Amino acid sequence: MDNLGKLFGSQARVKILRLFLLNPLEVFDIAMVSEKSKVSLSDARREIALLKKIDILADKSFFKEVSTKSGSKKAPIRKRAQGVQLKQGSPLLMPLKNLIVSETPLNRGEVAQRFKTVGKIKFLAISGIFIDAPESRVDVLIVGDDLKKRSIETVLKSIEAEIGKELSYGALETSDFLYRVSVYDKFVRDILDFRHDRIIDKLGVE
């Protein structure tokens, strides 16, 4: 359990608070909170009840896409559901945001460790939400050989659950990345020329 988890007495509570504080206009039901925060349904239900009781969350109805059978195929339909949303105007929001959102749950070493099984990493940079640079093209850029897309997405989902926000990323094979650097590709330059933190750099690109 990280320091915030110790302070609040519950790692699940910290994950759920991050989810709502970083997505202040979104409405989530209990199942969605459980899935996105990677906590059990019972933990999600308990923490949401507590956060509603202290006026941080409020009930909100919304339309949710659900699958239904139409002949032999499943067709999604929109159905009204009951969820919860961050309660705007609560005096606790700003102090909580300053405390929780500013405390990144993963340090540089932990991020590198998470991605070590996704391929032969040659370059790994973080930006965006990790360094408070919302204008960044991506939150994570991964460059390497034999990259495994499914493994990358699995790692990203685990990090998203801890951070509370969906991450944008780029994953490039080394040869493609170096070619893009050589031709001043806009996507690559938009990352390298602006604020970012190089966690792994075996390529020495500028």
CATH class of the largest domain: Mainly Alpha
Instruction: Report the β-strand fraction as a percent range.
Output: 15-25%
Distance between the termini: 38 Å
Q: Which CATH-level-2 architecture of the largest domain?
A: Orthogonal Bundle
Strand order of the largest sheet: 5-4-3-6
Task: Estimate percent helicity.
Answer: 40-55%
**Which geometry do the CA atoms define?**
globular
Count of discrete structural domains: 2
Number of strands: 6
Q: Quick one: CATH superfamily of the largest domain?
A: Winged helix-like DNA-binding domain superfamily/Winged helix DNA-binding domain
Number of helices: 9
Structural class by sheet pairing and helices: alpha+beta
CATH topology value of the largest domain: Arc Repressor Mutant, subunit A
Textual characterization of the structure:
- There is one protein chain.
- The protein has 206 residues and is α+β, with helices and mostly antiparallel strands.
- The chain folds into two domains: 3-101, Winged helix-like DNA-binding domain superfamily/Winged helix DNA-binding domain (Arc Repressor Mutant, subunit A, Orthogonal Bundle); 108-201, no CATH class.
- Helix content is 42%, strand content 25%.
- It has nine helices and six strands.
- It has helices at residues 3-8, 11-22, 30-37, 41-53, 93-101, 108-114, 149-163, 174-182, 186-192, and strands spanning 57-70, 73-86, 120-126, 140-145, 169-173, 197-201.
- The strands form two sheets. It has a four-stranded mixed sheet with strand order 5-4-3-6. Strands 1-2 form a two-stranded antiparallel ribbon.
- Strand 4 (140-145), helix 7 (149-163) and strand 5 (169-173) form a beta-alpha-beta unit.
- The chain is globular.
- The two termini are 38 Å apart.
